[in-house]
Amino acid sequence: MRAKSLMLGGLGLMLALSGTAYAQGDAEAGERKATACMGCHGVDGYRNAYPAYRVPRIGGQHGDYLVAALKQYQAGERAHSTMHAQAEELSDQDIQDIAAYFARQKQ
Ligand code: HEC
To answer: Domain spanning 22-104 has what CATH number?
Structure first.
């Protein structure tokens, strides 16, 4: 019993370190971390506070696409000062969690 849970724990750690699949993200944690994003990206029933802005909808987007996009903003491979500032603050785990949260939402 104990040996088995240790093995599973080790497997989980390996998956977490490989850091590719968004499925490792914790959508519950992502929901809390995504509050700052909601002011612009919104969810059903929300409206952008600044209608002058065109903001892409990210709820329901594929998780791996979201992870890739955030890492590109973070690295400056996608040029957008606002999203660069947003992504800069995020750890890899934050990105996974947030992606899992948005990917879970229905279009
Ligand atoms: C101040 C407004 C604002 C905030 C806050 C914000 N974003 Fe964005 N986001 C934008 C805008 C504007 C774009 C479009 C940028 C572009 O054209 O590349 C964008 C683009 C994106 C994209 C790319 C979407 C696509 O279809 O390619 C992702 C992913 C994203 N944001 C995630 C987030 C996450 C996660 C957060 C919270 C950590 C966040 N954003 C916070 C304004 C914002």
So the answer is: 1.10.760.10
